[in-house]
Amino acid sequence: MIERLIAAHRVRNREIRAELARRVPDRLRLTQLKKERLAIKDRLFRHFPDAAEMRRIARDALRRARHA
Predict the structure, then answer these.
(1) pLDDT tens-digit readout, 9-32
(2) What whole-number distance in Å separates Cα of residue 19 and Cα of residue 66?
């Protein structure tokens, strides 16, 4: 589940960057994407309240995803 949340967070980050790269970014879409990203982050921190532990798990999950 943690890996799915991390993947969803990364997808939202990409969507936000893509929207910002548009000539005229849609502010409503950006607001919605940022809210979704924050909600995902909150769910992750419910599982790992220690930020250092959360980052370590996220890095490990990202490494596994890159090598898969």
Answers:
(1) 999 999 999 999 999 999 999 999
(2) 24
Structure tokens at 50: 């220690």
Q: Which two tokens stand for residue 1?
A: 């589940």
**What's the rounded Cα separation, in Å, for the pair 64 and 49?**
22
Q: Counting beta carbons within 10 angstroms of the beta carbon of residue 16, is it exposed (0 to 12), middle (13 to 18) or buried (19 or more)?
A: middle
Residue 8: closest CA among 32, 31, 41: 41
Amino acid identity for residue 8 in this structure: A
pTM as predicted: 0.71
Contact 16, 29 (CB under 8 A): no
Q: Read off the tokens for 31.
A: 């607001």
Cα four-point dihedral sign 45, 4, 9, 64: positive
